[in-house]
Amino acid sequence: MASPVSTLPSQSPVAAPGSGSAAKKPFKIRAELLAPTRLAPKVQLLHHTRSLSIQVVAHQVFVLVLACTKCFAAAGKEPPRIGVLGGGSVGTAVVMTVLVNGYRADRIALSTRQPDRVPRCESLRAPSALPMFQLVPRYYDNARLARESDVLVLCMPPAQLKSVSIQIRHALAANTKAPPLVVSALCGVTQQSLSKACGSQAVVRVQPDVAKIASRW
């Protein structure tokens, strides 16, 4: 006897949820998440631009120091005394750039609010950087720094210009024959504002081309 034939229509197996082309597509991790900094691309751009801008500022200051050194040597004087006001990333970069290029540590001084603290910045990452940095005299006396410096480099935040200028104004005016050269690394502060705040015409600015630096990334 023949087996009865089923009259039910054949049904194709139901696909399991998540199966198909979407399930076969491999999971990909964004490359920036594997970067050491784990920063978004825009944040990385800002970070690298800021780092390069600080290096450019430090090298511009060194060029001015080198020019002053040649003038002092032509007059038969010792190298100028460099005073850096502000011990943050910019001030530390200026100190290390001058030191790495062979400038004497005893001709440099740093005035910062926390002279005993070693700042965390890229300029001190090299193993040989910290011993060199510790050779530089550090204290917190802006008036003394201005009085004892031939070249005074302002590296503090721009918002502190008013309070700092009150401290150094009289010290800068004390030496009328050879006033110290004030070098400003302050962003957004014009040379006219600096001259008025410091009470001196011997003021120059260093400012990197941030737009050009950012365009390289």
TrEMBL record:
GO terms for MF: pyrroline-5-carboxylate reductase activity
Composition-biased stretches (Low complexity): 9-22
InterPro entries: NAD(P)-bd_dom_sf (IPR036291), P5C_Rdtase_cat_N (IPR028939)
GO biological process, alphabetically ordered: L-proline biosynthetic process
Region (Disordered) location: 1-22
Family named by the database record: Belongs to the pyrroline-5-carboxylate reductase family.
Descriptive protein name: Pyrroline-5-carboxylate reductase catalytic N-terminal domain-containing protein
Organism of this sequence: Phytophthora rubi
Organism placement in taxonomy: Eukaryota, Sar, Stramenopiles, Oomycota, Peronosporomycetes
